[in-house]
Amino acid sequence: MSYVPPHLRSSSTTTTTTTTTTTETSSVTLDDQSKLSYPSSNSHFNNDKSSAASFSSFSHSNASRWSSGAISTANRALARPDAVIPQWKPSERVLRMKPELIEEVCLRLNLDVSVSPDSAPAPAPIESFADMCLHPSIMKDIAYHGYTTPTSIQAQAMPVALSGRDLLGCAETGSGKTAAFAIPMIQHCLAQPPVQRGDGPLALVLAPTRELAQQIEKEVKAFSKSIESFRTAIVVGGTNIAEQRSELRAGVDVVVATPGRFIDHLQQGNTSVTRISFVVLDEADRMLDMGFEPQIREVMRNLSEKHQTLLFSATMPEEIEELAQEYLTNPVQVKVGKVSSPTANVTQTLEKVSESEKTDRLLALLVEEASRVERSGHPFPLTIVFVERKTRCDEVADALVAQGLHAVALHGGRTQGEREAALREFRKGTTNILVATDVASRGLDVSGVAHVINLDLPKSMEDYVHRIGRTGRAGSMGQATSFYTDRDMFLVANIKKAIADVGSGNAVAFATGKTARRKEREAAAAQKQARVALSKCSITGPTSVNIEDKYRFMIADSNSKREGAADSAWDD
Question: Residue ranges of the DEAD-box RNA helicase Q domain (predicted)?
Answer without folding.
Answer: 127-155
